[in-house]
């Protein structure tokens, strides 16, 4: 009987130790089981500016009911999670998250539509699903981008992009430095004016992927 009681108490202690936090914001934790340093985030994109020292050092994450997170690592690999995870290592994502996008519903498009047809050039193909425009409202010279990691958008385009066309079903993460370094932001739909997000004339490298 004594052994049984001790076992029950031990199980209760373990359960309490890994009990999920509560609240309506996503919380990233340094250690497994929602322990250690933490950073909170609401709907929208997040990157190194928000995560700080936790960038690439996250081992567990609390996700409120109804939320979904698209997560990315430094190599541009992506995963999507919609429930709290006390040990990201089980899924191969321990100490990998560096940026992402938190959503509470389905993304929607709208706004100014980009012109059809080709582009003014670029190494990624004129019919690419993503096009970076020098001017707002999808005008001016463009840099077409296919799925993958684009380490540098080019000397002429670097720090010159003002709008982005994103075909339905694609995700674009932009960085203000070459090689996917510096600050980042993730977009799920076309952006007629990057200035509205504080990203006018800042893009230097991008990652293009499909939405799950």
Strand content is 25-35%
Q: Identify the CATH class of the largest domain.
A: Mainly Beta
How would you sum up the global shape?
Answer: elongated
| Radius of gyration from CA coordinates | 20 Å
- Please identify, by name, the CATH architecture of the largest domain: Sandwich
Helix content: under 10%
Class from helix and strand fractions: mainly beta
Q: Provide a count of the helices.
A: 2
Compute the separation of the termini in Å.
51 Å
Stretches with pLDDT under 50, minimum 5 residues: 10-17, 106-111, 116-125
Rounded mean pLDDT score:
80
Tell how many strands the DSSP assignment holds. 14
What order do the helices and strands follow?
HEEEHEEEEEEEEEEE
CATH superfamily of the largest domain: Crystallins
Which strand order do you get reading across the main beta sheet?
A: 3-7-5-6
**CATH topology call of the largest domain:** Gamma-B Crystallin, domain 1
The biggest beta sheet reads:
4 strands, antiparallel
- Give the tally of structural domains: 2
């Amino acid at each position: 009987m004594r052994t049984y009681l001790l076992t029950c108490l031990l199980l209760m202690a373990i359960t309490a130790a890994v009990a999920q936090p509560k609240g309506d914001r996503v919380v990233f934790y340094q250690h497994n089981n929602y322990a250690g340093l933490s950073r909170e985030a609401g709907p929208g994109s997040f990157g190194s500016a928000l995560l700080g020292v936790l960038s690439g050092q996250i081992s567990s994450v609390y996700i409120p009911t109804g939320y979904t997170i698209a997560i990315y690592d430094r190599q541009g690999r992506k995963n999507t999670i919609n429930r709290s995870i006390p040990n990201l290592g089980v899924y191969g994502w321990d100490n990998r998250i560096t940026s992402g996008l938190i959503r509470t519903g389905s993304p929607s498009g709208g706004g100014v539509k980009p012109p059809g047809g080709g582009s003014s050039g670029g190494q990624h193909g004129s019919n690419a699903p993503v096009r970076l425009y020098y001017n707002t409202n999808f005008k001016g010279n463009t840099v077409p981008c296919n799925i993958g990691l684009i380490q540098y958008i080019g000397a002429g385009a670097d720090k010159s992009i003002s709008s982005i066309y994103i075909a339905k079903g694609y995700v674009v993460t932009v960085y203000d430095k070459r090689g996917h370094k510096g600050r980042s932001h993730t977009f799920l739909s076309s952006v007629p004016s990057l200035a509205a997000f504080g990203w006018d004339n800042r893009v230097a490298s991008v990652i293009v992927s499909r939405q799950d």
